[in-house]
TrEMBL record:
Family under the similarity heading: Belongs to the glycosyl hydrolase 31 family.
Lineage: Bacteria, Pseudomonadati, Pseudomonadota, Gammaproteobacteria, Lysobacterales
Annotated ranges, domain Glycoside hydrolase family 31 N-terminal: 48-212
Glycosyl hydrolase family 31 C-terminal domain: residues covered: 596-707
Keyword Signal: yes
The protein's name: Glycoside hydrolase family 31 protein
Domain of life: Bacteria
GO function term, MF aspect, one: hydrolase activity
Location of the Glycoside hydrolase family 31 TIM barrel domain: 255-588
Signal peptide: 1-18
Record-annotated DUF5110 domain positions: 724-791
Keywords: Glycosidase, Hydrolase, Signal
Amino acid sequence: MRFVAAIVLLLAAGGSLASTVAAPAVDTTPRIEHRRDGVEVHRGAVSLRVTALTDHVLRVRIARDGAFAEDASWAVPAQVRRAHVAVEAAADGFSTTALRVRVDPRTLRMRVEDGQGRTISADAARPFDADGRAFTLRKQLPQAEHIFGLGDKTGGSLDRRGQSYVDWNTDAYGFSSATDPIYKSIPFFIGVGGTGGSYGILLDNTWRSWFDFGHREADTLAFGAPDGPIDYYLIAGPSTAEVVRRYTDLTGKAPLPPKWAFGYQQSRYSYMSADEVRQVAARLRADKFPADVIWLDIDFQDRNRPFTINRQAFPDMPGLVRDLRGEGIKLVAITDLHIASAPGEGYAPYDSGTAADAFVHNPDGSVYVAPVWPGPSVFPDFTEASVRDWWGTLYRPFVADGIAGFWNDMNEPAVFDTPTKTMPLDTVHRIASDDFARRTASHTEIHNVYGMQNTRATYDGLRKLRPDERPFVMTRASYAGGQRYAVTWTGDNASSWDQLKLSVHQLINLGLSGFAYSAADVGGFTGGPSAELLTRWFEIATFTPVFRDHAAKDTPRAEPWVDGPEHLAIRRRFVEERYRLLPYFYALADENARLGDPVMRPVFYDYPDAISASCDQSMAFTLGRQLLVAPPPTPESPQAYDVCLPAGGWYDYWTGLAVDGASVDGASQPIQSASQATNEKRSSSLVVKETPRLDKLPVFVRAGSILPRQPLVQSTAQTPTGALQIDVYPGADCRGQLYADDGHSMAYRKQGFLRQVLRCTVTADGVRIDFAAREGQFKPWWKQLAVTIHGWDGAGYAMAGGHRVEGVADSAARTLRFTVADQPRAATVEAVHR
Ligand code: MIG
């Protein structure tokens, strides 16, 4: 009887049977212990430690039996975890300069508020349960809150609210919008729309974690894992951008990629021979289809063995690389992690790996062998630093051949002929890395970070082999922080309209999860796209971070020309536009490398009110702050649709004319000329009606933008000729950024770059452009700036450096154009009405 009463009491106190059974018979009075950087709360055997890493980032750890889990992480580097700030103690918790943290020691409930007492995040009535090694954490999910992030998880919408997910990296061939789990585990999500602003939570647990965003209980956010550390970070905003930036402070920024990563990339499973690769390259050039990369999928190898080459099909790899380089095209080659188990055959990766004891073991101490593409295969133990070093050396011959980038596929890891599609859970990994204790770990613990450590080995290896080149690595599986090593793509999607839409959600959520560089197979991997689907996919991919056309074996060809000249012409027009926009893309890459802002964003990232816009925004996204891309929300439908343009005013990207929200059928009407425009925010949002047309994709430019563009090139390897184009779209907080460097080396880390902020202001006589002083010492390709002022009426001229430059006015386009010398120093150029 007494026993039952005790359980009831414990449950009422917010604990659970399992978590409290082990409670020692010592002092069990719940209490708060103040620390310099936070608090530790003790309730029976359970301890809750809240540490302020910064004024906006808290780390929360729970020890269920007196001892905290090992303080080590694959996601958050040691020096970041060690950061802490002094806090101000309060009876019920503490505060930082930005946050107020309250903890109830009887229930372990925590509430985090901003300085004004608004709730950022509050625990639910039962904040913590343990069941054996498993645990559940619960927080309140207010009605107004939306959930984003978690990488490229599926689901019917961008918003993850109402859904539940499992993190378990899975080879999900032909996945649908209902498939879960898929390839990656990024246990980080963002709550948007609550009273205290946006916040993020990273559950740094590599086990098979799960997340329930109001699926089981509408007002509860629950997450947990079957084992592993109870260790999460709570990141305050209040803006979504601040949350994402702080998340990338924690888990790392994606390094600046080589510029060619932004070029058009042509792939297929597989181009079967060097001749076929040459034909594809020749066709791209004959069709004047700008392109930078051709991909080599597994058939370039000898018997599917990684780090080999089929010498019948590819007799002279350096020769192929050289010839393609002449066309401005680079090669990316696949290098899967499964190494053929081929003892005594002279297969170097197997031999050297065996000599180094580099492969994952069975519990009985033998090497784990399982079938994948090469047949029986062994699997590098990437959680050992020495094994990663060994793996990195395998790239030496390919690097010597001049292969530019590498593709890490199948690294969930995928295993054939087993219902689990992966290794047995008791397979033994060795950890000898970072500040982890040297120990073994079961596959259950390592599974979700295996692919990430594979890419880490690849990235670090390439840094050593080519110290002055930026690595380009593309991965299928990863974990939180994996953006430090590789770009990613969404795996084996299908050729359907539904998946085109899903891909937009996936890429946006990847960007919010630290992975700014992401791709979906354009056209879809399985099935084969219709001409219309492939064309629409090209149009949308034009404005996404990484643009790779890829298709499965046994599907119809999906290169840009396969559907005849009309479709080819539309696809080319869009890809050409991407190449013109390269200076803008590249400035976004610089911004991402420094701050963590995604390249492709949800509209609410820069325009928070868009979270509650009345339009169906399920396909809308922004590319940086300046461009808003608005594909049809039902991408296959001819139905007219509304686009909600956030307050502030917008221009039509294609016509350059200001948008009048009252216009119908997408016929953009100018509303204000620059002379009428003010520097005030246009207060109301606009609704524009668009009627889908296959050759058109609505794109809008924020009023208050300066957009850099360049003359068309066929490859990023080609130096543009002519002036850098500067399009000025007057409006509030008008700015733009130039960024340039050599596009491929590490020199940008030592002054070999150019960064310049431009601002514009509408004046009584016209428009003034202020060039800030340039940072860095890189000498750009352009000598002149071809400036176009949009929203301009009447004649005009420009004043630059005390000189008067005649302008060319176009009354239909409402522009004033003029060309001035490059402005490397702080300077003002003024467009003046005449
Ligand atoms: O088992 O390398 O997702 O992009 O073309 C399939 C062949 C292995 C899966 C990748 C896909 C690639 C394919 N790979």
